[in-house]
Amino acid sequence: MNELLPKLSTVPEGIHSPSDYLPYAKERLPPEIWRYLEEGSANNVSLQANPHAFDSIHLIPRPLSDVRSGHTKITLFGQTLAHPVILAPLAYQQLYHPHGESASAMAASAQEGQSCVSSLASQTLEDIISAAGQPLWFQLYWQENRERTLKLLQRTIAAGYNAIIFTVDAPVKQATIQLPTTIQPINLDLPAPFPALLPQQSQVFNGWMAQAPRWEDLAWLRDQTSLPLLVKGILHSEDAEKVINLGCDGLVVSNHGGRVLDGTPASLACLPPIVSAISGRGKVLFDSGIRNGRDIYKAFALGADAVMVGRPYIWGLATAGALGVAHIIRLLRDELELTMALTGTASIQEITQEKIQISRNQNRN
Amino acid sequence: MNELLPKLSTVPEGIHSPSDYLPYAKERLPPEIWRYLEEGSANNVSLQANPHAFDSIHLIPRPLSDVRSGHTKITLFGQTLAHPVILAPLAYQQLYHPHGESASAMAASAQEGQSCVSSLASQTLEDIISAAGQPLWFQLYWQENRERTLKLLQRTIAAGYNAIIFTVDAPVKQATIQLPTTIQPINLDLPAPFPALLPQQSQVFNGWMAQAPRWEDLAWLRDQTSLPLLVKGILHSEDAEKVINLGCDGLVVSNHGGRVLDGTPASLACLPPIVSAISGRGKVLFDSGIRNGRDIYKAFALGADAVMVGRPYIWGLATAGALGVAHIIRLLRDELELTMALTGTASIQEITQEKIQISRNQNRN
Amino acid sequence: MNELLPKLSTVPEGIHSPSDYLPYAKERLPPEIWRYLEEGSANNVSLQANPHAFDSIHLIPRPLSDVRSGHTKITLFGQTLAHPVILAPLAYQQLYHPHGESASAMAASAQEGQSCVSSLASQTLEDIISAAGQPLWFQLYWQENRERTLKLLQRTIAAGYNAIIFTVDAPVKQATIQLPTTIQPINLDLPAPFPALLPQQSQVFNGWMAQAPRWEDLAWLRDQTSLPLLVKGILHSEDAEKVINLGCDGLVVSNHGGRVLDGTPASLACLPPIVSAISGRGKVLFDSGIRNGRDIYKAFALGADAVMVGRPYIWGLATAGALGVAHIIRLLRDELELTMALTGTASIQEITQEKIQISRNQNRN
Amino acid sequence: MNELLPKLSTVPEGIHSPSDYLPYAKERLPPEIWRYLEEGSANNVSLQANPHAFDSIHLIPRPLSDVRSGHTKITLFGQTLAHPVILAPLAYQQLYHPHGESASAMAASAQEGQSCVSSLASQTLEDIISAAGQPLWFQLYWQENRERTLKLLQRTIAAGYNAIIFTVDAPVKQATIQLPTTIQPINLDLPAPFPALLPQQSQVFNGWMAQAPRWEDLAWLRDQTSLPLLVKGILHSEDAEKVINLGCDGLVVSNHGGRVLDGTPASLACLPPIVSAISGRGKVLFDSGIRNGRDIYKAFALGADAVMVGRPYIWGLATAGALGVAHIIRLLRDELELTMALTGTASIQEITQEKIQISRNQNRN
């Protein structure tokens, strides 16, 4: 392992955009942790497709507009947020900084936004929410069966989490990093025993998928809580419809940052048909590929109700802890405000498809 | 020649996909043999087009589906195979490993699949089938005339081969490697004398093509055996129709791995019109460009009935003999199962065109 | 800072096109000034899109045409120019050469063309016009309010400037270079105090945009002068219409050389719809991306009435002062003449859309 | 100048295609001559577009076809050629080999084909035709006026040339190489004096274009000879029609190898509309971008009646003189025969558009 640089106690000079944090984070993380953070699955086709999808959306300046009353506020499930950037539920955040998930959640609160804590958090749910000083969202993974899942859900509710994001797109857990003994999924019970397989049986179909949730489990889960329930990892509009028809409050369009099934479309490409299928009957959040405030603007133009941001805030966490995360959020908000101002857009609601042009031919080199 | 590493007696660590074997194989083979394996023809336009064609096919995750009864079985010409991966008939396999074709065939049997032995095998047909312990398929090259071809066919049938794959797309044999004296097309008679040409005559038209099979020879061949007979090397749907109308049992869509005529379309691009032209009157196998289980899924989505895999299993053979080949097959099957599970697909028959999205604009960089 | 080469007193040998000046200029400028000149905003998507957009426009040679009477003259606001190349209003030109804006304006006059002086000129308006020996155009930035703006406008008119180019696409001033104390916006008063913001207020919306001009300010500005008034930084055809409907004499289609909002379309892509919307009711100038005479031809084929050229003439200025700028202009005119001759075009008016072919698929690599 | 390798007296080993000669030629030529041979104009957009255009045309193998009677013969203006490869009129061939144009012409004759001698040949017209031992084609440049042009034409006819290729796409002569004193346009008179220009006049319009031929000059030229007359450098179908309507025997679709006007379409892209406009009323030759026999096949599929090949035969000339040129021609013919055989095509006339597929999306990387 290389000699790592200490975390910074102030934000670095000369930062203009979240990606300016990238080299600082890379320097401060062991190579295997950096790889774990940045990797996609297989050939990285989907990983690379995510940011590239934004390049075919063009922004049209509208000078001389009156945007003096402009702001980035949104209201989501009764809570008013100063901006629409929600921290995505990344696992094991103590890998990146000793203050882990608490630092991220604290930063989100300080920036008057929201964060979503992973089932695979490396700190206790109670400690994180206490650090944040406000209710948070919880990302729920299915715990092999209903009993175990319900137990985790009830603990979450008791701890004061106020929305459940149920992630369904990663039923097979393949470790790609060896966790240090000090960093573990501290909020989970030991996993249930893996199904005993006959020689002819498949590890995938008869093993992992036997422990994966199904639509009837989602229906059951809906009945276990009156909190807002969103399903994360939806790319097909028929699935989006099913989620809403089962009484959920919304969903997160996501290809898991290109980390699960290589060859999915860019997450952004799946957003418009899902927005159209839902037509306002639930909230549609967008995740996977956002790297700056212009990307946020484009996701709203294609119909998102809020966005989740992942790797970029971890760059800030790895560099300067809570201070770095708060800075990343502020940079994203500043870039979003600037994009809105230059395009003559005074509120998130005004960011519509008419504000953009979609090109099929212009590629970044 | 550089110092070569010995073959492995166990499979390497850290392998997640067939392409992880590539550097091991490259290290273990002399450069001229590696080049012979990997080369395409001319400018490699078709060689490169093959894998790239898969990148424009997108997979759509369908979480929460019930795939607990999932499997990859197919039935082909009366034989049930545990998975649809058939080893393509690559020539002179002792170039890659001393155990040659026998090792590959043995591995295919152990994985409950099928392999196809080349006319240019470096071991006797009888030894290979004996190593395999089950009937195999035989790839037949035209032997300059009917008499010589019939002789080879009859020996094949006597040896217990149970399907004939007649390759028609490479009528001109241009050696691109100097075979060592110990590795020869051991199952073939010495070639018939090349036609004596007048000064004005063309080596291509009056030489090679005078020894090449024609449609009437295929009709004749069909009458010589009641075994399943498939024609390999078909890219045009009119030719596919002719093959079926002559009573053949199927065909293999293939551009010979980009090794014959540079500038053909990607093999995958030719699959849908041929499937449509045949509409179930024969089996359509797909060959050329498959590198992982997601590619197999995509070929089925475009209508294939089974797939042939070539270079990847040779990577395994060169690295670790039969063990390596078996591992490659298992990796392909695991990846196929995972792709099916994540897309909510419980059987090969369920892999239809509705499962994918075809994009004309997204390119891998 | 590296050791810089002195400016040349003659033009370099072996120059065939403006871009041949680029390495000379780069050698002669400190790296941070070179970066400031060449940079775009954020990821440079728009910066790179500008020149690439020209590559999809093809020129069709029309040999054997009679072009013996050919010329490149245009008439603009009553003035006849020998060619349609107008020097764009780049800021702080003493950064590049001690003779600054005066050298550029002098060169434009000597080449019987026109130049536009920036609000951010590093020499006095009076000195520049005196060096030029002819009336010039003035690029006006809004000076935070009407009173301050009017003061600058009146000084401009008094100095003898004969057209006003009002730039509206860069309301937020973010310094990306530290100016030396000897180089300052010498024609401007100290900026008005930045609005005092409440804790909840946004620097963008409540700060910068409160000091930015709005449509009603443009209407007011139109009433303050009878000089030709053009608005620079228009990319949307509705805005182009508004500009004309407010009585302005024209506009400049520009994305500010890719320096303001990253992700705008290429400037060239916005030209045709604006030309179509205006349909002759005002002049449409084109800016952003022109690097040679063929590009000028293409802009006219898409409907421009004149073109502005930016970075290329600064390469000449940095290399050889007024002599270099004059040479750049002459090179552009020569290339334009040659393109006209080879395409059978005897006048600027004959450069129509029928002269070109637009391809959506051919990219420069 | 670097130490040059001597020319070879036998052809190199291991050559499979004309481009295999490229490194040999590059080694044997001084860098400035290599640059002169290979260069395009300006940014090389058209130079690179020429070969890339072929990549979007796909060849479809048609195995099992009967092509035993196949051949590559064509008949052109009464002459039967063994193959359709005509050597393009490249200038100053003694730059590449001391045997110059004579070597090229001799090789073309030996291969039973045809070659076209440039107005800018470095050997006398009489010596070249004598070396060839058969009538050749002559490429005519306009000699500033009719009298001088007629004088050159009459000398050509007297020398026994049997077809005139009148090149019209390069009216401006800009030297890009300093010719050694021993290599000169030996067949031309000293150029006529360049027009004296007034200060206001344009070197392009009033100078070069005053000495360039016009349509009426072509009509006049047609009347001066009964030999076949073709116009070279036509890309627009209206011009192709005019050429035929003036009584010419055909034309050469060419963008001058990308050497004149940068930004023209690929020559291949202009072929189909011209073929369609002419519809058999004259011969359509194709030039610019052919590098192998598959390219020749594709040009015929798009309607060409014969092809001109340029730079590739110079690679052979520079490497091994007449022997090298003859080898290049033979390689092209062999590749063409192989392509015909594999696509089931027994004669040049059978190469039609149905033999190919045109793809807009598949690019070579």
From TrEMBL, chains A, B, C, D:
Does the UniProt entry include the keyword Transmembrane helix? no
Q: Which PROSITE patterns does the record match to this protein?
A: FMN_HYDROXY_ACID_DH_2 (PS51349)
Q: Does the keyword Ubl conjugation apply?
A: no
Assigned keywords, A-Z = Flavoprotein, FMN, Oxidoreductase
Q: What cofactor does this chain's UniProt record say it requires? A: FMN
> What InterPro entries does the entry give?
Aldolase_TIM (IPR013785), Alpha-hydoxy_acid_DH_FMN (IPR012133), FMN-dep_DH (IPR000262), FMN_HAD (IPR037396)
**FMN hydroxy acid dehydrogenase domain span:** 10-361
Q: Where is the signal peptide?
A: none
Q: Which family does it belong to?
A: Belongs to the FMN-dependent alpha-hydroxy acid dehydrogenase family.
What's the protein name? 4-hydroxymandelate oxidase
Which species is this UniProt entry from? Nitrosomonas eutropha
